[in-house]
Design brief:
The complex is a heterodimer of chains A (173) and B (81). By secondary structure, chain A is an alpha+beta fold. Chain A is built from five helices and seven strands. The chains are: A alpha+beta (173), B mainly alpha (81).
Chain lengths: 173, 81
């Protein structure tokens, strides 16, 4: 599977990434577990626009760089349009929530991160591909108060750098 | 032939089906620890009359910096001299 992704970062970090041809390891644990995050791109998702939005509106970076990458691997998890992957992922989540309740915990405290923690610990994925939505409090603060999803966000979490086959700086108008 | 994703998710589903409550609790606590460690931040400088910092608006200006967890906040209960 081959995908294109966009990554926005500060000018300083961006220059390092471009000069080394390698992304800096991230401590990010949100969304899809540990890895480097990219905005995906397809007919209904504009990865470049989302990466600009992220830098300008969310991170409020005064100087930033957008980097476009091509990612290719057969070791991926596709939670966007692979029915088998989505169904199995749903079953795993269902089963874990059952265990969570069985352990005397409240279902609302369950975190999807647990699933990605298992995935990162047990398997060797190169990337995970999924749609996320801005429903958390951080997003609400920057204008994501809506029910109709006009800007779904396609995320690619790269776990292994070697699946990135090209890195290119995007010129922003 | 099963692709890598389907194969590993099938394996993970079997694993979680057979997981004991104790094993679940250990895994959950470990995961929550990751998330709480991720929210930690070292604050350098002098702060006066600061009640809270919204981590959403911190810029990652250094390569070593982490991206703060969305929705995180840190409250400084006492101020540095």
């Amino acid at each position: 599977m081959r995908k294109e992704g966009y990554h926005s970062t500060s000018e300083e970090c961006g220059e390092i990434i471009l000069s080394q041809g390698k992304f800096i390891d991230s401590d990010e644990t949100n969304w899809l577990g540990k890895g480097i995050y990219f905005w995906g791109d397809c007919d209904i998702f504009n990865g470049l626009s989302e990466s600009i939005w992220w830098a300008q509106k969310f991170k409020r970076l005064s100087k930033y760089i957008i980097i476009k990458v091509e990612i290719e691997s057969d070791k991926f998890l596709n939670l966007v349009d692979n029915k088998n992957h989505k169904r199995k992922f749903g079953l795993i989540k269902e089963k874990l929530i059952e265990k969570h309740i069985e352990a005397g915990r409240n279902a609302v405290d369950f975190k999807e991160y647990l699933i990605f923690k298992f995935i990162d610990k047990r398997y060797r994925y190169d990337f995970i591909y999924a749609i996320t939505h801005g429903s958390d409090s951080g997003y609400r603060k920057v204008g994501f108060n809506f029910n109709i999803v006009t800007r779904p966000q396609l995320q690619i979490c790269v776990k292994k750098h070697n699946c990135i086959i090209s890195i290119e700086r995007m010129e922003i108008e | 032939m099963m692709d890598y994703g389907t194969k590993t998710l099938t394996d993970l589903l079997d694993y979680v089906k057979n997981m004991s409550v104790d094993e679940y609790n250990r895994a959950y606590e470990e995961a929550m620890k990751d998330l709480s460690e991720f929210n930690l931040i070292t604050v350098a400088g002098t702060f006066t009359n600061v009640q809270s910092i919204d981590l959403n608006y911190l810029d990652a200006t250094k390569p070593q910096n982490f991206t703060p967890n969305r929705g995180s906040s840190i409250t400084i209960l006492s101020t540095a001299a």
